[in-house]
Amino acid sequence: MARSIGMAANATVFRAVITITNRDGTESTKHEGPYGSIGAARARVSFWTNYLAERDEETCKPTGKSRARGYVEEGSVSWQPA
User: What angle do CA 50, 39, 16 make, to 5 degrees?
Assistant: First the structure.
């Protein structure tokens, strides 16, 4: 997904690091961002945790055995000619 990241040099940015446990037990990690606020990155972690949560077949409520987890990383922007 394209996004405008025309931020000032040395600006603080955040990214969501999501670890997904596949049905066969293997794990894969993906990174989303950069985001200009920690809240936006946390929202992506929450989205994937809720979206991939295992659910009870009868009630459709989450069982607490999530198939995704994540955290937020902080970084800074450094621009230079390519």
Answer: 60
> Quick one: tokens of 56?
């009870």
Per the CB < 8 A criterion, the answer to whether 77 and 5 are in contact is yes
pLDDT of residue 80: 84
Between CA 19 and CA 12 the distance in angstroms is 23
19 CB-contact burial (10 Å; exposed 0-12 / middle 13-18 / buried 19+):
middle
pTM of the model: 0.76
- Look up residue 50 and give its amino acid: N
Q: Which two tokens stand for residue 27?
A: 């794990």
| Residue that the structure tokens 């450094």 belong to | 78
